[in-house]
């Protein structure tokens, strides 16, 4: 039986049977039928729940005359992402802001979860950054086809038709490498941050680990920003208009 966080234990106690049955229906036998929900998946569910609650709070308190602090915070975050995407992609970037903001908030909350005792960052487990990277990959590819139609395939052939046989495999490898790059960068930084925080919290007296917690928070913010920035750059390559 794997070591479980208290929140994971609650989920497995409540939902182990239906989750196991669901997996078996697709011919996938969980290694631990009594505990099919992993810590990383449980933390993702927690992040999703927290974001949903925050979004509902923001939505219920929207005000033009007297906006609250929470509304100001999210408006600032949305404005920052929108301004960055407008600079990189161009004037038609507004349609991508919702995805970029959602992706950024999910990664940020996931990163910061490891700061709270008895929790861990789901992004410190490879499968979660991989899922985020695949979501970004399929999103910008889909937007490329939506923007240019079948002509988007010319993006992989290079500027000269004669070079297409050489450029197509290079471009395909380059795009797939983006998934690997996004995954490893986020996972490696958050895994290292979690390990450093855990070591110093367990070894040093109360109060001394505070600088390392501050470092963890800084790394969490930085990695969420870099992930969104790179996704925006990849979107620009897929939907950017040449002038």
Task: Describe the protein's architecture and organization.
This protein is mainly alpha-helical and 243 residues long. It has helices at residues 6-25, 39-60, 69-88, 97-112, 127-148, 164-203, 210-239. α3 packs across α4, α3 crosses α7 and α5 (127-148) runs antiparallel to α6. The protein is globular, with a radius of gyration of 21 Å. It starts with 5 loop residues before the first helix and ends with a helix.
Distance N to C terminus = 59 Å
Overall mean pLDDT stands at 89
The gross shape turns out to be globular
Topology pattern, helix = H, strand = E: HHHHHHH
What is the oligomer described by this structure? Answer: single chain
Sheet bearing the most strands, described? none
Q: What fraction, in percent, of the residue positions are helical?
A: 55-70%
Number of helices: 7
Secondary-structure content class: mainly alpha
DSSP strand count: 0
Low-pLDDT stretches are none
Beta-strand portion reads: under 5%
Structure keywords:
single chain; 243 residues; mainly alpha; 7 helices; 70% helix; globular
Itemize the secondary structure elements and their pairings:
Blueprint: H1 6-25, H2 39-60, H3 69-88, H4 97-112, H5 127-148, H6 164-203, H7 210-239
Question: Can you give me a brief rundown of this structure?
Answer:
The chain has helices at residues 6-25, 39-60, 69-88, 97-112, 127-148, 164-203, 210-239. It has 243 residues and is mainly alpha-helical. The N and C termini lie far apart (59 Å).
């Amino acid at each position: 039986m794997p070591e479980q966080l208290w929140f994971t234990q609650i989920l497995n106690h409540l939902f182990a049977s239906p989750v196991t049955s669901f997996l078996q229906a697709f011919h996938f036998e969980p290694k631990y039928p009594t505990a099919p929900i992993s810590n990383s998946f449980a933390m993702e569910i927690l992040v999703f729940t927290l974001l949903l609650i925050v979004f509902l709070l923001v939505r219920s308190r929207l005000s033009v005359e007297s906006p609250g602090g929470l509304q100001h915070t999210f408006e600032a975050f949305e404005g920052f992402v929108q301004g960055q995407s407008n600079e990189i992609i161009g004037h038609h970037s507004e349609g991508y802001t919702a995805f970029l903001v959602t992706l950024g908030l999910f990664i940020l909350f996931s990163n910061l979860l490891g700061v709270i005792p008895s929790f861990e960052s789901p992004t410190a487990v490879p499968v979660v950054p991989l899922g985020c990277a695949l979501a970004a990959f399929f999103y910008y590819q889909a937007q490329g086809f939506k923007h240019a139609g079948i002509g988007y395939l010319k993006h992989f052939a290079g500027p000269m038709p004669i070079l297409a046989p050489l450029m197509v495999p290079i471009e395909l490898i380059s795009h797939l490498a983006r998934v690997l790059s996004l995954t490893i960068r986020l996972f490696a930084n958050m895994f290292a941050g979690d390990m450093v925080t855990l070591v110093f919290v367990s070894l040093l007296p109360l109060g001394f680990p505070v600088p390392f917690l501050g470092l963890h928070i800084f790394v969490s913010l930085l990695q969420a920003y870099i992930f969104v920035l790179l996704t925006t750059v990849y979107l620009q390559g897929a939907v950017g208009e040449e002038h």
